[in-house]
Amino acid sequence: MKISSHLFEFEDLAWFPNTIRESMMDCLRFIIKILEIYQPIIPVILEGLQKTDSKQIVDLCSGGGGAMEQISQNINQQADDKIKIVLTDKFPNINAFKLLAANSKGDISYLETSIDASNVPSTLVGFRTIFSAFHHFSKPFAKSVIQNAVDAKSGIGIFDGGDKNIFIIIGLILIHPFIFFFCTPFFRPFRFSRLFFTYLMPIIPICQIWDGIVSIIRLYQPNELLKIATEVDTETYFWRAGKMKNKFGMNVTYLIGYPK
Q: Which residues contact 80 (CB under 8 A, 6 or more apart)?
Protein backbone atom coordinates (compact mmCIF):
# COMPACT_ATOMS: atom_id res chain seq x y z
CA MET A 1 0.00 0.00 0.00
CA LYS A 2 1.36 3.41 -0.94
CA ILE A 3 2.24 5.90 1.81
CA SER A 4 -0.15 8.45 0.25
CA SER A 5 -3.11 6.24 1.17
CA HIS A 6 -2.24 6.66 4.87
CA LEU A 7 -1.92 10.45 4.73
CA PHE A 8 -4.65 13.02 5.26
CA GLU A 9 -5.15 16.70 4.56
CA PHE A 10 -6.72 18.86 7.25
CA GLU A 11 -9.02 20.64 4.82
CA ASP A 12 -10.65 17.31 3.88
CA LEU A 13 -11.75 16.55 7.43
CA ALA A 14 -15.43 17.24 8.14
CA TRP A 15 -14.68 18.35 11.72
CA PHE A 16 -11.95 20.79 10.70
CA PRO A 17 -12.95 24.39 11.66
CA ASN A 18 -14.38 26.19 8.65
CA THR A 19 -12.65 29.44 9.63
CA ILE A 20 -9.25 27.77 9.32
CA ARG A 21 -10.19 25.87 6.14
CA GLU A 22 -11.41 29.03 4.39
CA SER A 23 -8.31 30.97 5.42
CA MET A 24 -6.12 28.22 3.97
CA MET A 25 -8.10 28.36 0.72
CA ASP A 26 -7.70 32.16 0.59
CA CYS A 27 -3.94 31.72 0.90
CA LEU A 28 -3.90 29.14 -1.89
CA ARG A 29 -5.92 31.45 -4.14
CA PHE A 30 -3.42 34.27 -3.45
CA ILE A 31 -0.46 32.06 -4.43
CA ILE A 32 -2.18 30.72 -7.55
CA LYS A 33 -3.07 34.24 -8.67
CA ILE A 34 0.36 35.78 -8.01
CA LEU A 35 2.24 32.95 -9.75
CA GLU A 36 -0.37 32.59 -12.53
CA ILE A 37 0.01 28.85 -12.09
CA TYR A 38 -2.83 27.92 -14.42
CA GLN A 39 -2.22 30.46 -17.18
CA PRO A 40 -0.77 27.84 -19.60
CA ILE A 41 -3.90 25.69 -19.63
CA ILE A 42 -6.26 28.34 -21.05
CA PRO A 43 -6.03 26.72 -24.54
CA VAL A 44 -6.98 23.35 -23.03
CA ILE A 45 -10.12 24.83 -21.46
CA LEU A 46 -10.98 26.61 -24.70
CA GLU A 47 -10.62 23.28 -26.52
CA GLY A 48 -13.01 21.64 -24.08
CA LEU A 49 -15.56 24.44 -24.42
CA GLN A 50 -15.40 24.36 -28.21
CA LYS A 51 -15.56 20.56 -28.55
CA THR A 52 -18.61 20.38 -26.26
CA ASP A 53 -20.23 23.55 -27.56
CA SER A 54 -20.40 24.82 -23.96
CA LYS A 55 -20.83 28.40 -22.84
CA GLN A 56 -20.56 27.64 -19.14
CA ILE A 57 -17.84 26.22 -16.90
CA VAL A 58 -19.00 24.25 -13.87
CA ASP A 59 -16.04 24.43 -11.49
CA LEU A 60 -16.09 21.59 -8.98
CA CYS A 61 -14.14 21.56 -5.69
CA SER A 62 -13.59 25.31 -6.12
CA GLY A 63 -12.10 25.83 -2.65
CA GLY A 64 -11.25 29.52 -2.43
CA GLY A 65 -11.83 30.07 -6.13
CA GLY A 66 -8.21 29.47 -7.12
CA ALA A 67 -7.42 30.95 -10.50
CA MET A 68 -11.02 31.35 -11.68
CA GLU A 69 -10.93 35.15 -11.69
CA GLN A 70 -7.97 35.24 -14.09
CA ILE A 71 -9.25 32.27 -16.07
CA SER A 72 -12.60 34.01 -16.53
CA GLN A 73 -10.90 37.13 -17.84
CA ASN A 74 -8.57 35.24 -20.19
CA ILE A 75 -11.24 32.87 -21.48
CA ASN A 76 -13.60 35.72 -22.28
CA GLN A 77 -10.86 37.62 -24.10
CA GLN A 78 -10.29 34.65 -26.41
CA ALA A 79 -13.65 32.87 -26.68
CA ASP A 80 -16.13 33.74 -29.41
CA ASP A 81 -19.04 33.75 -26.94
CA LYS A 82 -19.38 35.00 -23.38
CA ILE A 83 -18.40 32.20 -20.98
CA LYS A 84 -20.01 32.01 -17.55
CA ILE A 85 -18.45 30.22 -14.57
CA VAL A 86 -20.28 28.57 -11.66
CA LEU A 87 -18.23 27.88 -8.51
CA THR A 88 -19.19 24.84 -6.41
CA ASP A 89 -17.68 22.88 -3.53
CA LYS A 90 -18.43 20.22 -0.95
CA PHE A 91 -17.61 22.87 1.68
CA PRO A 92 -18.51 26.14 -0.10
CA ASN A 93 -16.31 29.10 0.83
CA ILE A 94 -19.16 31.59 0.52
CA ASN A 95 -17.15 34.68 1.48
CA ALA A 96 -14.52 33.97 -1.17
CA PHE A 97 -17.18 33.10 -3.75
CA LYS A 98 -18.98 36.39 -3.08
CA LEU A 99 -15.73 38.32 -3.54
CA LEU A 100 -14.96 36.64 -6.86
CA ALA A 101 -18.53 37.06 -8.11
CA ALA A 102 -18.54 40.75 -7.18
CA ASN A 103 -15.29 41.37 -9.05
CA SER A 104 -16.33 39.46 -12.18
CA LYS A 105 -18.96 41.81 -13.63
CA GLY A 106 -21.47 39.00 -13.75
CA ASP A 107 -19.24 36.35 -15.32
CA ILE A 108 -18.83 34.30 -12.13
CA SER A 109 -21.63 32.94 -9.96
CA TYR A 110 -21.69 30.32 -7.22
CA LEU A 111 -23.83 27.80 -5.37
CA GLU A 112 -24.14 27.95 -1.60
CA THR A 113 -25.25 24.31 -1.34
CA SER A 114 -22.76 21.45 -1.00
CA ILE A 115 -21.95 19.80 -4.35
CA ASP A 116 -20.38 16.33 -4.56
CA ALA A 117 -18.06 16.06 -7.58
CA SER A 118 -19.11 12.43 -8.05
CA ASN A 119 -22.82 13.27 -8.04
CA VAL A 120 -23.30 16.58 -9.82
CA PRO A 121 -26.95 17.67 -10.19
CA SER A 122 -28.29 17.30 -13.72
CA THR A 123 -29.27 20.98 -13.63
CA LEU A 124 -25.58 21.96 -13.59
CA VAL A 125 -24.78 21.87 -17.28
CA GLY A 126 -21.44 22.89 -18.76
CA PHE A 127 -17.78 21.96 -19.17
CA ARG A 128 -16.59 20.67 -15.81
CA THR A 129 -13.27 21.74 -14.29
CA ILE A 130 -11.37 20.69 -11.18
CA PHE A 131 -8.35 22.75 -10.08
CA SER A 132 -5.85 21.84 -7.35
CA ALA A 133 -8.19 19.20 -5.93
CA PHE A 134 -8.05 15.91 -7.82
CA HIS A 135 -5.08 14.70 -5.78
CA HIS A 136 -7.40 14.65 -2.75
CA PHE A 137 -9.30 11.74 -4.29
CA SER A 138 -8.59 8.05 -3.93
CA LYS A 139 -8.50 6.23 -7.26
CA PRO A 140 -11.98 4.70 -6.79
CA PHE A 141 -13.47 8.11 -6.00
CA ALA A 142 -11.49 9.78 -8.80
CA LYS A 143 -12.94 7.19 -11.17
CA SER A 144 -16.46 7.93 -9.92
CA VAL A 145 -15.96 11.66 -10.57
CA ILE A 146 -14.97 10.95 -14.17
CA GLN A 147 -17.76 8.38 -14.52
CA ASN A 148 -20.30 10.98 -13.42
CA ALA A 149 -19.09 13.38 -16.11
CA VAL A 150 -19.27 10.66 -18.76
CA ASP A 151 -22.76 9.62 -17.65
CA ALA A 152 -23.86 13.25 -18.07
CA LYS A 153 -22.05 13.48 -21.42
CA SER A 154 -20.17 16.47 -20.04
CA GLY A 155 -16.67 17.51 -20.97
CA ILE A 156 -14.21 17.60 -18.09
CA GLY A 157 -10.82 19.19 -17.44
CA ILE A 158 -8.69 18.24 -14.44
CA PHE A 159 -5.72 20.45 -13.51
CA ASP A 160 -3.15 20.22 -10.71
CA GLY A 161 -0.14 22.48 -10.31
CA GLY A 162 3.19 21.30 -8.96
CA ASP A 163 5.70 18.50 -9.35
CA LYS A 164 6.01 15.31 -7.36
CA ASN A 165 9.59 15.60 -6.10
CA ILE A 166 11.56 16.30 -2.93
CA PHE A 167 12.82 19.69 -4.12
CA ILE A 168 9.28 21.07 -4.35
CA ILE A 169 8.59 19.83 -0.81
CA ILE A 170 11.78 21.47 0.51
CA GLY A 171 10.91 24.70 -1.30
CA LEU A 172 7.42 24.66 0.18
CA ILE A 173 8.76 24.17 3.72
CA LEU A 174 11.28 27.01 3.31
CA ILE A 175 9.17 29.55 1.41
CA HIS A 176 5.66 29.21 2.87
CA PRO A 177 6.55 30.65 6.31
CA PHE A 178 7.75 33.85 4.60
CA ILE A 179 4.59 34.03 2.49
CA PHE A 180 2.43 33.82 5.60
CA PHE A 181 4.52 36.29 7.59
CA PHE A 182 4.67 38.99 4.92
CA CYS A 183 1.53 38.42 2.83
CA THR A 184 -1.23 37.42 5.25
CA PRO A 185 -2.61 41.00 5.63
CA PHE A 186 -3.12 41.08 1.85
CA PHE A 187 -5.18 37.88 1.60
CA ARG A 188 -8.79 38.58 0.65
CA PRO A 189 -11.45 38.64 1.92
CA PHE A 190 -9.85 40.16 5.03
CA ARG A 191 -10.41 38.29 8.29
CA PHE A 192 -9.21 39.25 11.78
CA SER A 193 -9.35 35.56 12.70
CA ARG A 194 -6.71 34.89 10.04
CA LEU A 195 -4.30 37.32 11.73
CA PHE A 196 -4.84 35.60 15.09
CA PHE A 197 -4.41 32.07 13.73
CA THR A 198 -1.32 33.08 11.74
CA TYR A 199 0.71 35.37 14.00
CA LEU A 200 -0.44 34.59 17.56
CA MET A 201 -1.44 30.95 17.22
CA PRO A 202 0.07 29.75 13.89
CA ILE A 203 -2.44 26.99 13.17
CA ILE A 204 -3.06 28.15 9.59
CA PRO A 205 0.61 28.06 8.45
CA ILE A 206 1.22 24.69 10.11
CA CYS A 207 -1.87 23.08 8.57
CA GLN A 208 -1.22 24.70 5.19
CA ILE A 209 2.36 23.43 5.02
CA TRP A 210 1.28 19.93 6.06
CA ASP A 211 -1.51 19.88 3.48
CA GLY A 212 0.88 21.19 0.83
CA ILE A 213 3.38 18.40 1.46
CA VAL A 214 0.66 15.74 1.38
CA SER A 215 -0.75 17.27 -1.82
CA ILE A 216 2.62 16.92 -3.56
CA ILE A 217 2.97 13.31 -2.45
CA ARG A 218 -0.54 12.55 -3.70
CA LEU A 219 -0.27 14.23 -7.11
CA TYR A 220 -1.43 12.09 -10.02
CA GLN A 221 0.89 11.80 -13.02
CA PRO A 222 -0.53 12.15 -16.57
CA ASN A 223 -0.31 8.41 -17.22
CA GLU A 224 -2.22 7.71 -14.00
CA LEU A 225 -4.97 10.17 -14.93
CA LEU A 226 -5.22 8.68 -18.40
CA LYS A 227 -5.43 5.15 -17.00
CA ILE A 228 -8.31 6.11 -14.69
CA ALA A 229 -10.17 7.87 -17.52
CA THR A 230 -9.75 5.08 -20.06
CA GLU A 231 -11.03 2.56 -17.53
CA VAL A 232 -14.27 4.56 -17.52
CA ASP A 233 -14.77 4.96 -21.28
CA THR A 234 -12.62 4.56 -24.37
CA GLU A 235 -15.30 4.08 -27.01
CA THR A 236 -17.33 7.28 -26.80
CA TYR A 237 -14.88 9.69 -25.14
CA PHE A 238 -11.65 11.34 -26.23
CA TRP A 239 -8.99 11.66 -23.52
CA ARG A 240 -5.64 13.43 -23.38
CA ALA A 241 -3.27 13.98 -20.47
CA GLY A 242 0.01 15.82 -20.17
CA LYS A 243 1.99 18.60 -18.52
CA MET A 244 2.44 22.29 -19.34
CA LYS A 245 4.85 24.82 -17.82
CA ASN A 246 3.97 28.31 -16.64
CA LYS A 247 6.29 31.30 -16.96
CA PHE A 248 8.07 30.39 -13.71
CA GLY A 249 8.81 26.87 -14.93
CA MET A 250 6.18 25.23 -12.73
CA ASN A 251 4.38 22.26 -14.22
CA VAL A 252 0.63 21.86 -14.45
CA THR A 253 -0.63 18.32 -14.93
CA TYR A 254 -3.87 18.05 -16.86
CA LEU A 255 -6.46 15.63 -18.17
CA ILE A 256 -9.11 16.67 -20.67
CA GLY A 257 -12.01 14.56 -21.88
CA TYR A 258 -15.10 15.07 -24.00
CA PRO A 259 -17.48 13.03 -26.17
CA LYS A 260 -16.07 12.02 -29.56
A: none
